[in-house]
Amino acid sequence: MTRQVPFKNGAPAAMDGKPEIFSYALMMETCKATKPTGALQLVANAAAGQYWDNSDTSLAVAFSQMADLAPQTPLEAMLISQMVAVNTAIGKIMQRGMLPDQTFEGKQMNMNLATKLQRTFLQQIDALEKLRGKGQQTVRVEHVTVNAGGQAIVGHVEHKQGGEG
Hints:
With 165 residues, the chain is mostly helical. It has one domain. The protein contains 5 helices and 2 strands. A two-stranded antiparallel ribbon has the order 1-2.
């Protein structure tokens, strides 16, 4: 379920018959922010360049996209805010590059920029996965040979400081 927050005049508005304080609280919780201004800044950054003419609609759409990605920490919220903005920029630049009256050079420049932004977006996905612990590698040992007189240890090894074992 996507959590929606309506915006009016650039700020969270009342929703479902509840005062606007509930919208602020939902925005702060979703953005993992301790202050409303910090949460609103993240949403405003994510809304930069949205397709919607109305800034309140842009804020609501950006917030919805951020909520869909469910940030778990303030750092994730910052990264997700950037990801939403980059994703929007990719679409806008690709659209601009495909305009019928666009010159060849213009198309090439826009497609090159869109490609760079797509690489950035993929790097952001990797960063988010690492933050969430999904980017960890697992090493699996299939076969170990220990020759006569050799020693092997399988498992976690800790070395203690000082004279302790």
